[in-house]
Amino acid sequence: MNPTRFTAACIQMRSGRDILKNRDAAVALVRQAADQGAHFAQTPEMTSLVCRDRDELFSKVGPEAQDPVLAALRDVARERGIVVHIGSIAVKEGDKVANRAFLIDASGEVVASYDKIHLYDVDLPNGESWRESATYTGGASALAVETPWGYLGMTICYDVRFAALYKALAENGASFLSAPAAFTKQTGEAHWHVLHRARAIETGSFMISAAQGGLHEDGRETYGHSLIVDPWGRILAEGGTEPGAFLAEIDTALVAEVRGRIPTLKNARPFKVEVVPAIETDRAAIA
Questions:
Q1: Is 266 designated active site?
Q2: What ranges make up the beta strands (E) of 13-147?
Q3: Catalytic site includes residue 157
Q4: Which residues lie below 8 Å from residue 183, measured CB to CB, with a gap of 6+?
Q5: Please, are residues 102 and 113 in contact by the beta-carbon 8 Å criterion?
Q6: How far apart are CA 111 and CA 239, in angstroms?
Q7: PROSITE patterns given for it (predicted)?
Q8: pLDDT averaged over every residue in the chain
Q9: How many CA atoms lie within 13 A of 56 on its CB side?
Q10: Element (H or E) spanning 32, and its range?
């Protein structure tokens, strides 16, 4: 395995309400990516189940040790000798669910897991309302995990709007950042590309983010457009809205080159913010 170059694949899906069907779709696409030369394959947020109904969600998910998607993707990683990053699956955690990502090495071992920190509690202009905190429990720790090619910063979806998280991951050694997602169509059309290019440029890192795309069984519509972006902000691979595997060659030397060219991480300085109150004026005198 070349320590400076590898091929990454974003596995774009349209997960539904049947965990086993979603499992089989993910496995087939990871195998397809491996057949096309991928050394690293990432699936999207909520690979295992896209379901807005809380009761149905809780009836279908279980603890991590019993999850069929995690088990199957561990098997396919071992079978094909490929590193698999599960963008996330739903895992039962007491009276709530964790939105949890996993990194699986080429021997099929889970080497790291990450729980989504920022929960999507928003009201959108088109009437969509989301309250992830009612169902999900948020994580508390950022995670940079070593891969054969360098450190990967693991995040999920809404995390991508919080630039300080990615700066911290890059400052702690991450060369590759990721935000596998189930972005809504509305917000994706407005912000998906610019957020990914910004996070890549700000940190001099690759961004690798697999996405859910299209109209799902539960009625939601996700944006798709899985992305691989290089440290200069160039898009190397992009999906549309249909499921598939989207591959790009990653040259890890580009991280050091870009960070040397524009050393924003090195040049960052601590600062404080001073708030200056409004100046009192005599309105009558001004008039």
A1: no
A2: 40-42, 83-93, 96-104, 110-115, 121-123, 129-131, 136-137, 143-147
A3: yes
A4: 157, 192, 211, 212, 222, 223
A5: yes
A6: 28
A7: CN_HYDROLASE
A8: 93
A9: 11
A10: helix 19-35
pTM: 0.93
Q: From the candidates 132, 157, 185, 238, give the one annotated as an active-site residue.
A: 157
What are the tens digits of pLDDT across the range 63-73? 999 999 999 99
Catalytic position from the list 10, 51, 116, 238 = 116
Which is catalytic among the residues 45, 132, 202, 238?
Answer: 45
Note the pLDDT tens digit of each residue in 186-195: 999 999 999 9
Confidence check: pLDDT of 131 > 70: no
Query: Which pLDDT band, with edges at 50, 70 and 90, does 275 fall under?
Result: very high
What CA–CA distances, in Å, run from 204 to 7, 26, 169, 273, 286? 19, 30, 12, 26, 50
Token couple for 273: 């913010």
Q: Is the dihedral of CA 102, 108, 40, 183 positive or negative?
A: negative
Residue 279's pLDDT band, with cuts at 50, 70 and 90, is confident
Domains present along the chain, CATH in parentheses: 5-286 (3.60.110.10)
Q: Give 207's contacts (C-beta < 8 A, 6+ positions apart).
A: 176, 177, 178, 179, 196, 197, 199, 200, 227, 228, 229
Cα angle value 206/225/117 (rounded, 5°): 60
**Which residue, chain included where needed, has tokens 């990967």?**
152
Ordered DSSP codes for 193-258: HHHHHHHHHHHT-EEEE-BBEEE-TTS-EEE---EEE-TTS-EEEE--SS-EEEEEEEETHHHHHH
Partners of 13 in beta bridges? 212
Pairing label, strands 40-42, 83-93: parallel
Tokens of 281: 């004026």
Is 132 one of the annotated active-site residues of the chain? no
